[in-house]
Amino acid sequence: MRIKILGFDCSPRKNSNSGALLQASFATAKEKLSGTGELVSEIIHLRDCDIKHCAACSVCGKRKDTGEYIPCVIKDDMADILAKMCEADGLAVATPVYFGLPSDLFSKFIMRTRVLRHQDFRLANKPVGIMAIAGRRSGGAETTIMSSWLPFIRNGCLIVGNGDQTCQFGTMGWAGPCGHILSDEWGLEQGEQTIRRIFEVASLIRAGQQALGQTGTPMRFSYTSGNRPQ
Ligand SMILES: Cc1cc2nc3c(=O)[nH]c(=O)nc-3n(C[C@H](O)[C@H](O)[C@H](O)COP(=O)(O)O)c2cc1C
Asked: What ranges do the domains of the chain cover?
């Protein structure tokens, strides 16, 4: 089975640890998966993309009367990125730890996925794994991972950890200068495991969708549920 995983490098730094970890994790996962399935990967370096802030105009989503989908009105690289996210079987995020949180680049990007949520959760059932790279031991990798989960849960995604052997919360990298991550043995091991876990769950989801004859999103977005009447 051919499974595509889209990776997001959420660092503003060229030659970032986040990008290096993603690249190494994909490469090792492909070696380990050899013979059991085909993993196709792509890394998007968010710093190279034109991504504007969500303007909170609430135009995007779907028409309340007909349900017709309305795209985001902002013209930048997000249209392509959103299309790639919908097409991918799984998502992997690698972010530097900033004050115990994912990077501001991550936040800017993820807020723009609200359009997909309002279009009947077009990311529904996609497995997502998070890699967080902290400069310091106990510097906030776990809080970063958990904070990153929240918007994906709101998008109907399925959160995974690093699966086999330890099943921790994802990947905790420990690195300072650019490239330092490539000597963090435990971070590299968790990174590769996280990618394989995303692959495994994505394969199960695909098989389930095929068995059920399910195409497109199985979820429906409601503009009224949980809102106080105005
Ligand atoms: C604004 C800023 C905030 C940071 N906050 C933390 C932090 O809270 N904890 C930590 O361990 N490292 C922190 N760091 C260090 C980075 O997480 C670390 O250098 C990481 O390797 C950067 O990854 P990158 O190469 O992918 O950008 C911070 C760095 C910056 C620039």
From this structure: 2-212
Neighbours of 144 (CB within 10 A): 28
58 Cα: distance to centroid of ligand 1 (angstroms)? 33
Secondary structure (H, E, C), 24-71: HHHHHHHHHHCCCCEEEEEEEEHHHCCCCCCCCCCCCEECCCCCCEEC
Which CATH code of 1.10.10.60, 1.10.1740.10, 3.40.50.360, 3.90.76.10 fits the domain covering 2-212?
3.40.50.360
- Kindly state if the Cβ of 37 falls inside 6 Å of ligand 1: no
Query: Cα(47)–Cα(14) distance, rounded to whole angstroms?
Result: 8
Q: How far, in Å, CA of 95 to CA of 129, rounded?
A: 11
What are 177-199's pLDDT values in tens digits?
999 999 999 999 999 999 999 99
Query: Is residue 7 lining ligand 1, measured as CB closer than 6 Å?
Result: no
* Mutate which of 97, 99, 147 for ligand 1 pocket (most atoms within 8 A of beta carbon): 97
Instruction: Say what the pTM is.
Output: 0.97
Helix H segments across the chain?
Answer: 17-33, 78-87, 104-111, 114-118, 141-154, 185-212
